Amino acid sequence: MSMMINRRVAILGCAMLAAVGVAGPAAAQDKPTLKFAAVFGDTDIRADAIRNLQEALSSEFTLEPHFGATLFKQGTELVALQRGNLETGIVAPQDIAKQLPEWSVLTAAYLFRDADHLKTFFASEPGKEMTKMAEDKLGIRIIAPVYFGTRQVNLKPEKEIKTPADMAGIKLRMPGGDAWQFLGSALGANPTPMAYSEVYTGLQTGAIDGQDNPLPNDYNMKFYEVTSQIVLTSHLIGYDLFAVSKKTWDSLTPEQQATLEAEVNKAVDWSTQRHLEEEAKLADFFKEQGLKVYKPDVEAFRQYAQQKYLESDFARDWPEGMLDKINAL
């Protein structure tokens, strides 16, 4: 009799252990895994921000960062999110505009005045209107814009630039593509397409008179060695978007959504501040190298560029009144 009881106890014990064994993995699965993809390298300030985010989320999420376009090629992140092959990542606004033409307004020159204006817009009602449009039509949840620098004009000639009229005849290298070439003309210059790797030699030989990039790029590519001035036109605020697949977003609890949103914003704010500090230091560095660094009549440039855009085909799909709403913020 006692042997039968012992056998029953043993069987019950095994069953309980098996149940615990099943419950263990199930509990672990309650912690969502988020694959993250970005084109920037692992030494970038933004990569440091993502590592900060990974640590901050570690008790509730498993964030798996993939930098340097190692998981998905540049420009394919949006499609990967839409297909459910990626949970979260950095998406360029230009890639959104390819699928959603209304978004092209958010890629225009002189739309945002600075990093703060960019953040203010996306937190505003017009900003929410645009992110809701992307969520409804493209299936992505946009959490925050990720600032990575302001494009400035860098010239070899010593001619002082105050207004777009002063840019007449300036051969300004711009990336290839109609949108970039249009941007060059919207600055009053003569846009010239040239590969990024050829710009230093182009400046050195006089094939081009100048180029435009955020200051960290000018430093990394040593353009300051073959130019005389940096005109702080601030014509394009460089940013991408931290986005989450809507399928992934909808699978999270309200508490998880709130935590993810809060921690992403903290990481992005940290990254933005670091970029602004770096840009300020580089302006002083370029002055030390003998370059003139000064601000032109930015408002004259803004009015000229926005008028050019409004008269172009690019503005055809812009939501009515959106430009005025952004300017008013």
UniProtKB/TrEMBL annotation:
InterPro entries (alphabetical): DctP_fam (IPR018389), TAT_signal (IPR006311), TRAP_DctP_sf (IPR038404)
CDD domains membership: PBP2_TRAP_Siap
Single biological process term from Gene Ontology: transmembrane transport
Top-level division of the source organism's lineage: Bacteria
Residues in the signal sequence: 1-28
Keyword tRNA-binding: no
Keywords, ordered alphabetically: Signal
PANTHER family for the chain: PTHR33376, SIALIC ACID-BINDING PERIPLASMIC PROTEIN SIAP
Protein name (Swiss-Prot/TrEMBL): Sialic acid TRAP transporter substrate-binding protein SiaP
Native source species: Microbaculum marinisediminis
